[in-house]
Design goal:
By secondary structure, the protein is α+β, with helices and mostly antiparallel strands. The protein is about 30% helix and about 30% strand.
């Protein structure tokens, strides 16, 4: 697979190339998914600057952060263990179309977030990226995902279907969700993605 997805001249220490994939989507398009690397920071900054109001509201639950060099370095530099992120890019031009990440909250618990460009939604991309993240999290000692989101954000609530048990609380329009990841469900979901590979 790595011969299909060109690497940068240098990859960060611990870069997990096994998470690279060409993913077919429900509408026939493909994306290239790979772990994030520091060079992605500039594109993340550009995506924040260009994002529509709805995307910013859903992702940041309010106004977006100022994309300072320090913030972009933080978002694009991870250890691939306690902080892990994936990017999805359009094969034809390399445009960044989605980012999904988890970050450690507590022992065994990671906060999960995903952002997808509007014209790449509703084709299974966000779901696939969260499924891949869940596998990475389980392999790195996490057993549950936590998410905070607007209660009317139906796509997020549907995404968090990777566990056998969970708790969802809503207060003043904000949902807090904790999902115990089920390794059998996650493995089956990732296996199904593998079956879709070209």
């Amino acid at each position: 697979m790595s011969d299909q997805l060109p690497h940068p001249v240098e990859t960060p220490s611990g870069y997990p190339a096994e998470f690279e994939r060409d993913l077919p989507l429900r509408d026939g398009r493909h994306v290239l998914i790979r772990p994030i690397r520091p060079a992605d920071g500039l594109d993340i900054g550009a995506a924040i600057a260009a994002a529509d109001e709805t995307t910013l509201r859903m992702r940041f639950m309010g106004g977006p952060p100022r994309p300072t060099p320090a913030l972009l370095a933080h978002l694009s530099t991870v250890d691939y263990k306690t902080r892990f992120a994936l990017v999805a890019r359009e094969p034809a031009n390399g445009h960044l179309v989605a980012v999904a990440r988890y970050e450690r909250l507590a022992e065994g618990v990671a906060e999960v977030a995903v952002t997808v460009c509007p014209h790449w939604r509703r084709v299974g991309l966000a779901t696939a990226m969260v499924e891949i993240l869940a596998k990475a999290a389980l392999d790195r000692g996490f057993s549950s995902f936590h998410a905070s989101y607007f209660a009317d954000n139906r796509p997020v609530s549907i995404l968090l279907n990777l566990g056998g048990s969970g708790v969802r609380e809503i207060s003043q329009g904000i949902a807090e969700c904790a999902i115990a990841l089920d390794r059998t469900l996650v493995s089956a979901a990732v296996d199904a993605l593998n079956d879709r590979r070209p």
